[in-house]
Amino acid sequence: MTTHPALEAIRGGLVVSCQAYPGEPMRDPDTMCRVAQAVAAGGAAGIRAQGLADLRRIRAALDLPLIGLWKDGDGDVFITPTLDHALAVAATGADIVALDGTRRPRPDGRTLAQTVKAVHERTGRLVMADVSTREEGLAAAEAGADVIGTTLAGYTPYSRRPEDTPWPRSSTGETHPGPDLDLVAELAGELSVPVIAEGRYHLAEQAAEAMRLGAHAVVVGTAITHPTTITRWFARAVTGEP
Ligand SMILES: CC(=O)N[C@H](C=O)[C@@H](O)[C@H](O)[C@H](O)COP(=O)(O)O
């Protein structure tokens, strides 16, 4: 049973991740803010966004629950990798601080439990632990995370590969790397903290399935807010090129 207003507000809803990657034309806080406003108009229950400038800009413009992260560094742990990153994200006004919730060594040497505790004590914000496996999800909940996200499933060398969970995209039988719905079911079945389904939700049907499996909410990014990737899907289908 969750009680925090931001978690209650996204319960049963769609959270839209609004991110542009380094060097891309849309990598600009005002642009991302407009994307966030556009998805809010479409019924997003919450926003997930990256980078301090984007978070500040979006926080000032929108009242929706905001999940903030800061991708930094070129190591294995790059989603809000240290406590300092987490404190900076909290200072933007994000309601929930998303961070790497795996058991890999963190660049500042702190454990996940130490990091979560410090965020709670020093900011009062909630922590979303982005994990890649069932074991990591259970450990992150044990470490005190308020919400567990399946964000990193398929993005660590030891987690289930996305190719193992393909979903058909068209009547021609074309398949696409799918989300790890089994992980959502496993975690939702075992945890009392909310589980957020995130990562490669490219079809509305997949998002609906995650909810049936017990997700608290679903985060969709690429399929809504990344036109370069969406264009590539359609361009390949139209040209027949691989
Ligand atoms: C693995 C990683 O770095 N994931 C990031 C986490 O914030 C984002 O790049 C994703 O876009 C986000 O998780 C939403 O997922 P999708 O774009 O597949 O709907």
SSE blueprint and pairings:
Blueprint (H helix, E strand, L loop, with lengths): L4 H6 L2 E6 L10 H13 L4 E5 L1 H10 L4 E4 L13 H9 L4 E5 L11 H12 L2 E5 L3 H9 L4 E3 L17 E2 L6 E2 L4 H10 L4 E4 L5 H9 L4 E4 L1 H4 L1 H13 L3
Parallel strand pairs: 1-2, 1-10, 2-3, 3-4, 4-5, 5-6, 6-9, 9-10
Antiparallel strand pairs: 7-8
Bound molecules: N-acetylmannosamine-6-phosphate.
Label this structure with key terms:
242 residues; alpha/beta; TIM Barrel; 8-stranded parallel barrel; two-stranded antiparallel ribbon; 10 helices; 10 strands; binds N-acetylmannosamine-6-phosphate; EC 5.1.3.9; isomerase; Putative N-acetylmannosamine-6-phosphate 2-epimerase
Write up what this structure looks like.
This is Putative N-acetylmannosamine-6-phosphate 2-epimerase. Converts N-acetylmannosamine-6-phosphate (ManNAc-6-P) to N-acetylglucosamine-6-phosphate (GlcNAc-6-P). It comes from Nonomuraea monospora. With 242 residues, the protein is α/β, with parallel strands linked by helices. It has a single domain, classed as Aldolase class I (TIM Barrel, Alpha-Beta Barrel), CATH 3.20.20.70. Helices cover 39% and strands 17% of the residues. It has helices at residues 5-10, 29-41, 52-61, 83-91, 112-123, 134-142, 181-190, 204-212, 222-225, 227-239, and strands at 13-18, 46-50, 66-69, 96-100, 126-130, 147-149, 167-168, 175-176, 195-198, 217-220. The chain has an eight-stranded parallel β-barrel, surrounded by seven helices. Helix 2 packs across helix 3 (52-61) and helix 4 (83-91) packs parallel to helix 5 (112-123). The N and C termini lie far apart (46 Å). Bound molecules: N-acetylmannosamine-6-phosphate (LRY). N-acetylmannosamine-6-phosphate (LRY) binds at residues 17, 19, 69, 151-152, 155, 198-201, 219-223.
